[in-house]
Design a protein that fits this description.
Distance between the termini: 56 Å
Bound molecules: 6-O-phosphono-beta-D-fructofuranose
CATH class of the largest domain: Alpha Beta
Shape: elongated
Oligomer: single chain
Structural class: alpha/beta
Number of helices: 14
Order of helices and strands: EHEHHEHEHHEEHEHHEHEHHHEHEE
Number of strands: 12
Strand order of the largest sheet: 2-3-1-4-5-6
CATH topology of the largest domain: Rossmann fold
Helix content: 40-55%
Largest sheet: 6 strands, mixed
């Protein structure tokens, strides 16, 4: 029986745990016995708040160093027992950023091949978002939000002092953990690597619900842009959406900064106070520039050349002073990645977006020619359920209110 230890490497908040859960799920689907050994969880259960202060991570603090090493050794021992009991893949979820730490790990598990997987992600926005998420952990209870963020940043700085990127390890993969892209790899002796590599590069959407906001006053008037609120019908759609999800676990909802998106989520927020609702500027509707708040017929009349240009090539057309689908792509891709990253790839993420934004999100999962993307049907009484993992692709339009 082949056995393998996967050891994560990376600074805090780089998406290591998300990669671990992806690997565990994907490899278990292959029929393998997999277990994750998480140093952070063990530390929190043994030391709780005692290990929350940043100085605990100061490389010059020998007590902190000793305790962290002890936790690592406990997990290595547990991994060794797991192997003896017939486990096949042990995943060590920890920072492992220093060379001596990795050398120790190799010495302790010398009988097993080790694959080091380094998660690299220096997107400042996502780091910020990751820090916000981490500081919600119970170990930061008792600190104000700003104190918790300051403390966690300090902790990262201590790790940075000892961080040595992977270089001469025998088996290694460097992963851009935001874009799921392999940046470098050296593989000598790694069982299951074909499967592992494929999992690492897969986008992992366990269950995403993509809805559009309910009907707005501007929708009725056929005006574009603006920030109008929901009509009575739009509010009924929002209530129906919440009712539809009454018995579904929705850990995260992402909205745009527009009022119609926030109002659509309101009934759900009341029904599920434990759901985290996060507004992302990247999910804002297409900026229609000088045409903001105009009706399509007004544009045709007042700016016939612009209207014709858009009709000819809607995807590449850019509104004067605004955006086009073509320029929207990067921001929306980023918004989706941010939402998935922030939700730790949990199932049951709901995005309440807009017509153009949702088309761009859908274009990542649907096979559509570019010229057809700006015409994808985006109803207001149905949502799209999307599953996209290495093993499963599911795409379903689900009705939550009878009439459109
Ligand atoms: O009509 C609602 C709306 O969200 C507008 O704000 C936006 O300009 C438009 O849809 C995008 O759809 P289309 O690209 O088909 O005009």
């Amino acid at each position: 029986m082949k056995q393998l230890c996967i050891a994560m490497v990376g600074l805090p908040g780089r998406g290591k745990s998300t990669v671990c859960s992806k690997l565990a799920e994907g490899l278990e689907q292959e029929g393998l016995r997999v277990r994750i050994f998480n140093n952070g969880d063990l530390r929190r259960s043994l030391l709780g708040k005692d290990s929350a202060c940043p100085e605990f991570y100061d490389p010059a603090n020998s007590t902190g160093r000793f305790q962290r090493e002890k936790i690592m050794l406990m997990n290595l021992e547990a991994a060794r027992r797991f192997f003896i009991d017939g486990g096949q893949v042990a995943i060590l979820d920890a920072t492992n950023v220093s060379r001596p730490r990795r050398a120790l790990l190799e010495r302790k598990l010398v009988e097993y091949p080790i694959l080091f997987v380094e998660c690299i992600n220096n997107d400042p926005d996502l780091l910020e978002a990751g820090i916000q998420r981490k500081t919600k952990l119970p170990e930061f209870n008792g600190l104000s939000a700003e104190e918790a963020v300051r403390s966690f940043r300090r902790r990262i700085q201590y790790y940075e002092q000892i961080y040595a990127p992977l270089s001469d390890e025998y088996n290694l993969v460097k992963l851009d953990s935001l874009n799921n892209r392999i940046l470098g790899e050296r593989i000598h002796d790694v069982p299951y690597y074909n499967s592992i590599r494929d999992i690492l590069v897969s986008d992992w959407v366990r269950s995403l619900f993509l809805a559009r906001h309910g009907e707005s006053f501007f929708n009725v008037e056929e005006r574009i842009g603006g920030d109008s609120g929901l009509t009575e019908k739009g509010r009924a759609q929002a209530r129906a959406l919440a009712e539809h999800f009454r018995d579904t676990e929705i850990p995260y909802v992402f909205t745009s900064p527009r009022c119609r998106s926030a109002q659509t989520v309101e009934p759900l927020r009341r029904l599920k106070p434990e759901t985290a609702v996060i507004s992302l500027p990247e999910l804002d509707e297409i900026d229609v520039g000088v045409c903001d708040s105009m009706r399509y017929v007004d544009i045709r009349r007042a700016m016939p050349r612009e209207f014709m240009k858009r009709a000819k090539d809607k995807y590449h057309y850019i509104y004067p002073g605004g955006e086009g689908y073509v320029t929207l792509k990067e921001r929306v891709d980023h918004g989706l990645k941010k939402a998935l990253f922030l939700s730790g790839n949990l199932p049951g993420v709901l995005i309440v977006g807009h017509q153009a934004v949702n088309r761009m999100i859908l274009s990542l999962f649907l096979f559509r020619r570019t010229e057809d993307v700006p015409y994808i049907y985006i109803p207001q009484n149905q949502y799209f359920r999307i599953v996209s993992t290495q093993r499963e692709k599911l795409f379903k339009l689900v009705r939550f209110m009878p009439e459109a």
